[in-house]
Amino acid sequence: MVTEKAAYIGTSNWSADYFQRTAGSALVLQPAGSAPPPGTEPTLRAQLQASFDRDWGSPRARGAPQRDCGGDT
């Protein structure tokens, strides 16, 4: 997950029993201080954001089918 200020790399399994029965790990990346000086490499958070934006807008990306989550299945 990438926000305006940080990146989170960890498990996608956020169910209650997962937290009760396993020892997962995560990494939160957040730059200390201000933005990097001009001409330097982008932060890892910025690189992750760029990768997500590239993949999200790719001509190969397709939307997931709509599902009715309420009512009878």
TrEMBL record:
Region annotation Disordered: where it falls in the sequence: 51-73
Ranges that cross the membrane: none
InterPro entries tied to this protein: Diverse_PLD-related (IPR050874)
Lineage: superkingdom: Eukaryota
Gene3D superfamilies associated with the record: Endonuclease Chain A
PANTHER family recorded: 5'-3' EXONUCLEASE PLD3, PHOSPHOLIPASE D - RELATED
Protein name: PLD phosphodiesterase domain-containing protein
Organism per entry: Pavo cristatus
